[in-house]
Amino acid sequence: MKPKLVIMVKEPHPGRVKTRLGKDIGLTASAWWFRHQTRALLRRIEDPRWDTLLAVSPDVEGLNSRVWPAHLPRVAQGRGHLGDRMGRLLRGLPKGPVCIIGADIPGVTRARIAEAFKALGNHEAVFGPAPDGGYWLIGMKRAKPALPSILQDVRWSSEHALADSARSLGDVSVAQVMTLRDVDTIGDLRQLQR
Question: What's the pTM value of the predicted model, to 2 decimals?
C-alpha cells in the first residue's frame, strides 16, 4: 500500500495559530508566517512515493477552505487534544504506513520524510524528535490495529512529550530519525535564521 503523509493544519486566522509566536511578533504576523510556511512546506514535500493529505481544523471551515491547495485530499481533525486527533488519524486511515507532521517545521524535506518511511520497514513506529523533548513527526507501520490508548496521558508541550507518546504505543519497536526544530517562539525563528 502506498504510504500516507498527513500534514496537520489549522486555518491561518490571527489568534488561532501560532499564538505563542504571536505574543512576540503579533498575531497577524504569526498567522501570516504560518500560512506562508505551510505553503512552502507543501511545495517541498509533495512526492509521488507517498500520498499527501491535509488534516484540517476547524473541521467544516478547513474542509471547504480556499487557503490550501485544492488538489490535496482533506480529512477533519475532529475534537479533542492533540493526542485524540492524531490517534484518530492513526486508527482511521486506510491500512498501510502513515506519518503525521505539523506544518510549522521549516527543516522538513522530501529526504526527511523518505527517511521516516524507510525506518518503518524495520520498525513499527517512528518519531522525528524536536530539541525541546517533543517531536515533529510520528509514524506507524499499522500492520495491526492501533491501540485505543495511543497518545493518551501525554504531557503535551513539555520535555516529556516524545517519551510519553512512545510509551503510549505499547510494546512496539520504535525508530528515531533526524531531530528538527519547530517554530513556537521568536527564539525558535532566530535559531533557524542562524
Answer: 0.95
